[in-house]
Design goal:
By secondary structure, the chain is α+β, with helices and mostly antiparallel strands. The protein has two domains: 34-237, Cytochrome Bc1 Complex, Chain A, domain 1; 259-439, Metalloenzyme, LuxS/M16 peptidase-like (Cytochrome Bc1 Complex, Chain A, domain 1), CATH 3.30.830. The protein has 16 helices and 13 strands. Strands 1-2-8-3-7-6 form a six-stranded mixed sheet, sandwiched between helices. The chain has a five-stranded mixed sheet with strand order 9-13-10-12-11, with helices on both faces. A two-stranded antiparallel sheet has the order 4-5. The protein starts with a helix and ends in an 8-residue tail after the last strand. 46% of the residues are buried. The model is unreliable at 1-14 and 16-29 (pLDDT under 50).
């Protein structure tokens, strides 16, 4: 075994070298995405990135926590155990197969999707081994009792820790408040009670239902040809059952009423989260709201919210806002942390800042500065194969146009002050905001 490991050290060193080279190589101005469907009906998205002998691959499934049903945390648990054992290999053997060729493989889950991704050198022997490993993990996970119990114990420990974190409590109560019975309402990692109730067979059933070729798409970015990419996609999926694509998740209700939740917690600071469901990935106002929020609360210390709450009044160390778009309406969120006795004052300033912004919009100077910051930094967000693969996976999963990366800056530049003002007035209704405060504070009367 030691001799085999030594023989692969050059491969590991080479991978480290090409990763570094990838970090130092500027991205091209255009990313050409090719798209086709395999004989099994699986969409494949491919971008040729020559020059570095490396490939990044993602296999994405509509299998995020929105598919948990009433078994909260099931998708996350399934994904977490997925690569701990597969086919004839246990977790150590899988790691050895990957490390011997310098490959990196990971699994992840979000509200909407689950994914297996890997990065490998394009050397045929190494890449073939990685594809075989990934294919087996996808189609033949063992979900052993030992692996399941170990991951379950770790998840429960993390959930217990979150119960001691006011920020985590605030976020979970906020999601429950704005989404009610919608699948986005529950935490993706579940609750103490829901995870305790999960069994190994639940993971097996979830995998059998959702990790199927009818529910998959493949993203390939790297120094491989179209023909090689077709072979990679076919080999990755060849062991998967055909299955069926799940139906759509429900729409998010617009029939919401604003309310405040004050959760008493023994802490020196209050964590505040304010907002409502607003934005999906397909929203026609996406770029307008994106630029507008960059000015309002998404640009750090120079943002409106940070200036008003932190810099001018010293009411919080951090104050921010952001949109989190999904397949269905994701939330607009404003938030801050502050000393308990300052929470109500900080909340008033936060809401007043938004009211002023909705009424008047940004200044031309703010807009111009924001546009330059966003477009100037965009190239840094697509300066490696893995980052490009992440963007393409998002484009593919949400069904966005294939020229998304090429037209991003143009769409940012097209946003105007009037567009921002109109979008924020139309899409944000403070009367529908949920406000969650977690900390030690006096109860406030509702108006």
């Amino acid at each position: 075994m030691m001799q085999m490991f030594k023989s692969r050290i050059p491969a590991i060193r080479l991978l480290l070298g090409v990763i570094l080279a990838g970090l130092l190589t500027p991205a091209t101005s255009a990313v050409k995405i090719q798209h086709w469907t395999t004989a099994q009906g699986v969409p494949v998205y491919y971008a040729h990135a020559p020059g570095i002998p490396m490939v990044d691959v993602q296999v994405v499934f509509d299998a995020g926590s929105a598919r948990d049903g009433d078994q909260y945390g099931l998708a996350a648990m399934t994904t977490a155990v997925l690569d701990k054992g597969a086919g004839p290999w246990n977790a150590d053997q899988i790691s050895q197969r990957l490390e011997s060729g310098g490959a990196i493989l990971g699994v992840s889950a979000s509200d909407d999707m689950a994914a297996l991704s890997f990065r490998s050198l394009t050397d045929p022997e190494i890449l073939d081994s990685v594809i075989q490993t990934a294919s087996t993990i996808l189609a033949e996970p063992t979900f052993s009792d030992q692996d399941f119990n170990r991951v379950k114990k770790r998840v429960l420990a993390n959930l217990k820790h979150e119960l001691e974190q006011p920020g985590s409590i605030a976020q979970k109560q906020f999601n429950a408040a704005i989404y009610g019975s919608h699948p986005y309402a529950h935490p993706s990692n579940g609750t103490m009670d829901s995870v305790k109730a999960l069994h190994r067979d639940d993971l097996v059933a979830f995998h059998k239902r959702y990790f199927v070729s009818a529910n998959a798409l493949v993203v390939i970015v790297g120094d491989v040809s179209r023909k090689q990419s077709e072979s990679i996609a076919n080999r990755l999926l060849e062991k998967l059952d055909k299955g069926t694509k799940p139906g759509p998740i429900p729409l998010v209700s617009d029939n919401v009423k604003g309310h405040m939740i004050q959760h008493q917690f023994a802490s020196e600071q209050t964590h505040a989260v304010v907002g409502m469901p607003v934005l999906s990935r397909h929203d026609p106002d996406y770029f307008t709201l994106y630029v507008g929020n960059h000015i309002l609360g998404g640009s750090g210390l120079v943002s409106r919210i940070s200036q008003e709450v932190r810099e001018k009044r010293g009411l919080a160390y951090s104050a921010y806002s952001y949109f989190s778009p999904g397949k269905r309406k994701g939330p607009f969120i404003m938030g801050f942390q502050t000393r308990n006795e300052q929470a109500q004052e900080a909340l008033k300033v936060l809401n007043a800042t938004l009211d002023t912004y909705r009424k008047n919009g940004p200044t031309e100077k703010e807009l111009e500065s924001s546009k330059k910051n966003i477009t100037g930094g965009f190239v840094l967000r697509i300066d490696s194969n893995s980052e490009i693969a992440n963007y393409i996976a998002m484009i593919a999963y949400y069904g966005l146009k294939l020229d998304y990366l090429d037209t991003f800056n143009k769409k940012i530049d097209g946003v105007t002050v009037d567009m921002i003002k109109q979008a924020f007035q139309k899409r944000l209704d403070p009367n529908k905001f949920a406000t969650v405060l977690v900390g030690q504070q006096e109860a406030q009367k509702q108006n």
